[in-house]
Each structure stands twice: as structure tokens, then as C-alpha cells.
Amino acid sequence: MENGEIESTDDETTPPPPTFTGRQYRPVVSHDQVSIPMSPIEPVPPPGIQMKDEGSSSGGAGSGGTKSESKLEFFGKALVDLLGVRDMTGEPAPSSPRDGEDVSITLGRQKQSGVKLGTMMGVFVPCLQNILGIIYYIRFSWIVGMAGIGESLLLVAFCGLCTFLTSISLSAIATNGAMKGGGPYYLIGRALGPEVGVSIGLCFFLGNAVAGAMYVLGAVETFLDAVPGAGIFKESATPFNGTTEIVHTPNIHDLQVYGIVVTILLCFIVFGGVKMINRVAPAFLVPVILSLFCIFIGMLASPKNDAARKDGITGLKFATFKNNWASEYQSTNNAGIPEENGAIFWNFNALVGLFFPAVTGIMAGSNRSASLKDTQRAIPIGTLAATLTTSFLYVMSVLLFGALATREQLLKNRLLTATVAWPAPVVIYVGIILSTLGAALQCLTGAPRLLAAISNDDILPVLKYFKVTEGSEPHLATLFTAFICMACVVIGNLDLITPTITMFFLLCYAGVNLSCFLLDLLDAPSWRPRWKFHHWSLSLLGATLCIVIMFLISWSFTVISLALASLIYYYVSIKGKAGDWGDGFKSAYFQLALRSLRSLGANQVHPKNWYPIPLIFCRPWGKLPENVPCHPKLADFANCMKKKGRGMSIFVSVIDGDYHELAEDAKTACRQLATYIEYKRCEGVAEIVVAPNMSEGFRGLIQTMGLGNLKPNIVVMRYPEIWRRENLIQIPSTFVGIINDCIAANKAVVIIKGLDEWPGEYQRQYGTIDLYWIVRDGGLMLLLSQLLLTKESFESCKIQVFCIAEEDVDAEELKADVKKFLYDLRMQAEVIVITMKSWEAHSDGPGAPSPDDSAKAFVGAQRRVAAYLSEMREDARREGRAELMADGKRVVVNEQQVDKFLYTTMKLNSTILKYSRMAAVVLVSLPPPPLNHPPYFYMEYMDLLVENVPRLLIVRGYRRDVVTLFT
């Protein structure tokens, strides 16, 4: 194809396009694609470089021999195929089709054939069935009689506001991305973390299961009231408020027997799956709507005759409205019949607990989120529509019931709705039974799916039996839900069950509101809900209302429900598997860390707020097994530098080589190191740097690691004891370079000699921790000794501070000053002053060093230094240089100064061996590398200092204090 041509892809029936100069065009037809296939730009690789064809389609010759459709490429890379978009987790991109559509844009997978529900049947109908339940039909008029019209309106507004605000929060979270199964559990868990999600999700599951029992009992009670002869056992007869009038109520055993039978029948429907429920739901809902019309028509047309007026149904009268405006709280028996010495005294708080289940059910649609076509459209519209519809219905019912009948009639006639219904009470009986059975069906449908969703997340191993594959029905979870429902049916008392349901539902609503509050307040970049009518203050108000209602109903039930949720939370945190769902707490921690970092600033931290932040240099001076990225005892020592585990360690290592070649190796090594740190139970982070050599890598680390005042302040590494044994001649230069880099960067240094012998976590040490305090280091050595004492390994040790002084110093005065200083620092230690002859006194004196181990090492060091110096001079003479060179750098050697350094370190080593040979650990000041001395000489000084000392910490502070005398 020539440049500029667009070839025709139509079949032979398309008429040939008109021809123009150098180009071919054709008219656009209705079935043309929007995008135009274009031939790829073939990249021309440089000589010697082979390029992979990464943009080729998966079809090609392998699929029927036809050539795959060419894609527009960008420098050899195929551009994104919109029909194959996948999200960051590798899952297919979720679709958001319009109602009525069934679109699948998942590439490489078959479209699921499961039944998908729209806004009406998937959300609005389930919510309406759950909200319009038994409470409205057989308890609402009783509530109006007990609370009066005024407080009943307040009750409806109070509870309705709570669910309305929760619906707004639910709409915001549900439209912030695709939802999997689990409804509110999925939302809360992804916002507040798996522990909170599972604890509230299980409580909500129990609430739904118990609510199913409430609806079943309501249906059975209504059936037995309508058909008294159907009772197996004798009815209960109770005098009305001490009068001769008898009120008959169904026997509790009848409620139990019929309730179990009804629960089993509903389970058979649930086992038929979503398709069966979708067919049955209208059969339950349509009679309910008709019964509501009959109730309102009957109220508007009452009274029908004089008998009705005599029974207390006055019709819609203003006088009745006025008489019923105020509340009249009183005692009743367990069946709700007024009685002077009744067991229950009702007040506004108790009525909140009784009425609140009448406004619950807003989660019925979200519980079935896995069965919805478009969750982001269906959940907000369906839930809010059901909430507003039922709230308006309740307000109108309060006004009409309050003007319809006397208070006595409202209190004693539990089925007033049936009495006033047009044309006959049987319509209401059928409506009540079908309404409650429909709500029970929704509970028995949503609760098992909620439990299955919790199980599928694999957080709690104990729930593994309820797992289901995608698209399958949760049969085992349904059986478990039915068992709980039947256990509650055995209780048989509707008024005792409702407060329990209320607590679980309110706990879930509070979780949804807190989730939205947290996400809205943090406002992370991923928080982009399609539902715009929300604000964090509304969510906070909704959560507050939920907590207030819980305590208004019953503080004892509130404490029990919160304790149950806390126990589940604790169990999940102990036994549950870790999962990172990107919850809001992670975002909160991030923002809190940023705020804390900014508040710390870049200025120096006060000594009272100083914490050690060690930079653990993991790269050993020898070799470790391939599966061990760090010396095992380095992590143990890092823990010794923390008080009660508080603090952070940064474990670093350097890989020699080219970054572009070793970038993936560095990532793998970093993961291995992080896993090892976690295994050693050391709080810290891992970092791996690729550099040409160790010195360059460490220099980059020491300059860039950390942020603000959270930069590492102590460099910890192992002493290279093997350098002479392994003849590693490059180690002295690297070792000295690292120390000089730390000094230039103003970092403290801790070098561990005898790391292999460092005690483990449970290896108790006895004896002393000896400090040879030679130079002022800001108190770092003293602080390290105190931190060691806080560990179980060293808690039995005592601290000794050795002060090295020359002979002409007043030892007693120095000792008193040091003891006073330690006392002011709140440190208990024994102070020992040791006098030592100066180099001048030694050089003027007649004798040589005493023939002990230190003296032998001293003589050997002198001999090796002399040989190295002769070799440098020979190299300079051979190359015709006047100056001496070591490791490519010019050095100046003063032999008398070298002997002075060797003698000083020999005397210090001899003193350590004399006084601290049996010490648990020895701390000594680190001498800085002398200027213009070869690194080899410094290693000789250091070897002489650590000779025969089994466990030694060589410490160098930095230009600031880490301890203070002041409070």
C-alpha cells in the first residue's frame, strides 16, 4: 500500500469507490467501524540488534490461517486495544452498561451467562420489600398510639435521617469503582481494612439472618390472627389494661412450629438461585402494593358503620388527631398489651429500637451487587428511591393513623390496618403475609451471599467451607443462614428479636458512614465517585446518629454488639491472613506520615526527641549463603538499638555492576531482604542500590537515604576481620572510604567486631558492659549502653565506664566529674579512671612494651607497616616519583607518627584485655582515619586495637548531643 492510501475492507458486494489521482476513496456506510485499521510502522533496528515483535496480535496464522487485523503501533509497540483493557491487578476491566444492555468487554474470556438484574428488580424492589415489612403492618399503629403523633413524626424523621445519610454514603462508595459480591462488607473492608470489614460484615450477616426470623414470625403471627382455627396449641388470653376485655394472642409454640416450616419452604426457593427469586419477587411485591392502596383507601373512607365508631375508629377527625398528638407511654406485657404491672415500660428510646427495623433494608440491593448489571447506577438510584418512598409513606401513615382511631384502639388492635382496609381485611392479611415472606426471602438471599463473599476473600480460614466459585449459588451458606434463622424462630418473641437486629444493622450503617467519611476526608487521587452529592460532614453526622441510636435503644445491647465486633476483629487480626486492599487507613497513615515529616522540619532534633535510625550495611566483607541476604546477627543488633521496639532500621546493600542490566536483580534482592527482615522480626525497610562498586554505592546511599529528619543517623556495619586472612587488599581502601564518607555526612558510626558471637534474643549475658570513653561523642556510647540494658539478653549486666587519662591528670577529680555527669543523665555506672603513659614518656623511657599479647601484635604490625612502606618507596623509585602513592592517591608518611599511633592503639588494646577480657561487650571510641596516611596503615591500627577482644563495638558520634541533662 502506498503512502496515503486507505484500502477498502468491504466484501465484494460493496460498489467500487471512485478513483482520484494517486489515492483511493470510498463512501462511508452505516456499518463501518469507528476506528480505521492502519498498517504498523516497521522499526528499523540498528545493526546487530534484534527486535521482538511485541505488537503482533494473538490471532494470526494460528487462527484459521487468516491474517490478524493490523494495529497502530508506536515505535514497535502496539497501542492499547480498547476492547482488551485490563486494570492494574490483571482483572478484566469492569463494564458500566446502561439499563437493558448486557455488554462484555472482557478480552479472552467468555461472557458470563448468569442472570443480571437492573435498578428496579435488583435494588429498588429488594429494598422496598425489606423496608416495608411486618413492623409497618402490625406495629406501626401501636407505635402511634404509644408515642403520639408528634413524637411518632420525630421518630420517623430521626430514623429516616439516619438511613438517608447512610444511603448517601453508600451511593458515594458504591460509585467509586466496580463492586464485587458482598455489598456493605466489600465497601467497608476496602475502605477500613480487612479486619474491620470482616468484623462488621459478620455482624451484618447475623443481623440479616436474625431479621429473616423476625419476618417469618411476623408472617406466622398474622396468619394465626387471621385464621385462629389454624393454631395447633391453645391461644393466650390477656386482659386489656386490667379491664374485663380479653385480647387473644397466638401461642408461642404455634409460632415456633409454623415458623420452622415457613423457613424451610423459603430455603427451597432460595436454592433455586437468582433466576427463581427474580421470578417469585413480583408475586410477593404486587399484593403488597395493592394492600397499601387498600389501607389508604380504607382510612380515607372510614368509618364504614356505627359499629366501627363504637370500636374506636372515628374516621379522619381533627378531634381525634388532637387527642392523639401527645404521647402516652405505659407498661405492657411481652405481647405489647397495656398492663399496669407489665414487664416492659415503653419510652421513646425503646420505640426507636422497635421501629428502626422498619427503615432498615437499604442494603438489600448492595447485598446482591454481584448480580447487578451496573452497580454504579443501580445502587444509588434504587436505594435512595426506596428510602424516600418509604419515608414519605411513614409520615403520611402517622398523620392518618393519628386522626383515624382513638388511643385505646391504636394500642389494643395490633391489626388495625386490616380492620380499616378496603374492601375486606383479608386483603391486608394476604398483603402482610406476602410482604413479610418477601422480606424474609430477601434476607435469606442476601445473607448467604454476604457470608460467601467474606469466605471468598480468604481472610479467615475457618470460613473456607462457605467458599463458592464465581457465578455459583452459596448452598452451604444458605443452609447455615437457615439454621440461624430457625434458631431465632424458636425464641418466638418478635419484640425481643428486633433490638438485636437493630444493633447489628446500626453497626453496619456506622461502618458505611465512617468509610465514606474517611475516604472523603482523605480525598486520595483514587477517590472519584460518580455520585457527587456527598460530603464528609454528612457521613460523620450519619455515623454519629447511628452510635446515638444504639445507645438510646439500649446501652447494654450496644456494649454487647460492640464487644462481639471487637472479638471478631481481634480474632481476624490474630488468625486472619494478611491482605492489602488499599484501605483508607493506609492513606491516612500516609498523610499522617507526611504531616509528621513536615512538622519535624529539617532542623536538628532536640536530644530529648532523638531516636537512633540505624543504616544497616548488610553487604558482608565475606560470603554468606545465597538464601541469606544479610548476616543473621545484624538484625539482632539492630533490635538492640531500639527501646521497646520503637524505631526504624534501614537495611541497605550494594550490588556491583550496571543498573540497566541488574535492575531486576536488585528488585529481587530487595524483596528477599525485606522478607528476611520480617522473618527476624525487625521493624525496618530494605533498599538495594546498583553501583559500579561498593564505595560509589555507599556514597550515594549516605547522601540520599531518608527524608527530612527521618534520615538515618547511625551507620552500622561489620568489622572486616577476614581482610588479612583472605588477602583482600581492596578492603582497607573501601573501609576507610566508608568511614570518611560517614564523617563528611555527619553520621555516627558503629562497627561490630565479633558479630558471629553476638548473643541472640534469648541468650542471656552476665558480667559487665564496659565503655572506654576516650573522646567526646555527644553521649552516643553512653546511650547505646543504656539501650542494651533494655534487652533481655543484657538486662543482668552492669555498666562500667573507663576514663583514659594521662599520668599528670588528677584521677579523683576526673572520676568525680564523670560520676556527677552520669548522675545527671540518670545513668547508673561504675566509673574507673585509668592513667596511661604518653607517647613522649614511652619514647624517652628505657623499656619497650611488655611481652604480652598486645606487644606481640604491636611488633608484628610494625614489621608489616615497614614492609608496606618499603614497597611504596620501591614503586616510587621505579616509576621516578618523588612522592609516595597508595591506592592511586598521594600519601605522606611520618614514621614517628605511625609508631605513635601503633603504640597508642597497642596500649588501649592491652588495657581492654586487662580489665575487660570477660566483659559481655566492650564499647570503645572509633579513631578517625589520619590524614594522608595509607588506608593499609589505618587497618593495621584498627587490627591492633581489636586484637583478641571477642566482642567489641567501635563507636564514633557526630557533631551533636544525643543525651541531655535537662528534663
TrEMBL record:
Q: Does the keyword Mitochondrion apply?
A: no
Give the family this protein belongs to, as stated in its UniProt record.
Answer: Belongs to the SLC12A transporter family.
Species in which this protein is naturally found: Acorus calamus (Sweet flag)
Top-level lineage group: Eukaryota
One MF term in the entry's GO annotations:
potassium:chloride symporter activity
**Which positions, given as ranges, span the membrane?**
117-138, 153-175, 196-217, 255-274, 281-301, 344-366, 378-401, 421-441, 476-494, 500-519, 540-572
What is the name of this protein? Cation-chloride cotransporter 1
Start and end residues of each stretch annotated as Disordered: 1-69
- Single GO cellular component annotation? membrane
Protein topology in the membrane: Multi-pass membrane protein
- For bias type Acidic residues, the affected ranges are 1-13
Q: Does Chaperone count among this protein's keywords?
A: no
**Domain annotation SLC12A transporter C-terminal: ranges:** 632-753, 764-966
Q: Where is the Amino acid permease/ SLC12A domain?
A: 122-590
Protein keywords: Glycoprotein, Ion transport, Membrane, Potassium, Potassium transport, Symport, Transmembrane, Transmembrane helix, Transport
Tell me the name of the encoding gene: CCC1
Q: What does the UniProt entry say about where the protein is found?
A: Membrane
